[in-house]
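Recall the central idea of this unit: under ordinary conditions, the amino acid sequence of a chain determines the structure it adopts. In this exercise we apply that idea directly, starting from the sequence alone.
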Amino acid sequence: MKKLLSALFVLALCSTAAVATVPFPNNCNVNPCDALNGVVSCPDSPAPIPASIVTLTIRNQANNPIQNAAVNLTLLTNTSPICVCNTMVFNTTTNNSGQATMTMRYGGCIMNTDNAAVFRANGVVVRAYRNTKSPDWDGASGNCAVNLSDTVRFAPTTDLCFDFDNDLDVDLADTVIFVSGLSPSHSCTPAP
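Accordingly, the structure predicted from this sequence is:
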């Protein structure tokens, strides 16, 4: 009987430890993406624009941070031409506070499409966004450079690929994000 109780105790400890590393999406934060209802990306040279720097806080069901969680981003690139920078990192690990930072280093637009950008932690989908947008959008694709063709496309402010906060209009908040990628002009070397 003592062996059975000991075995059950060890099993209970193991299952508690396993649950501690399982992310609970409702307790996780993905900023600024949660506030924008989507992902903002931009070629990263000379420096990443603020809206493209994503901080993920990964927590379990007990709302405790998960240390060393493997965080991954996947993009649905078969629906729209995305130009990914050679500096883009799709995988990272959380720190002791359960936080990880990823910089979205690509151009293009995927809009109103399931799983356009998906963040996972320890294999669990934490967020699946329907929108990922960049100042690098000429109406057809991203080319890893924010330039005149993107400005011409942005100028009439009617293309919802420039609605970075996903509130169904291109307004001042969206203009601030666009200009941060345009001035100075951002670019990067495309990934092979």
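The chain has four helices and twelve strands.
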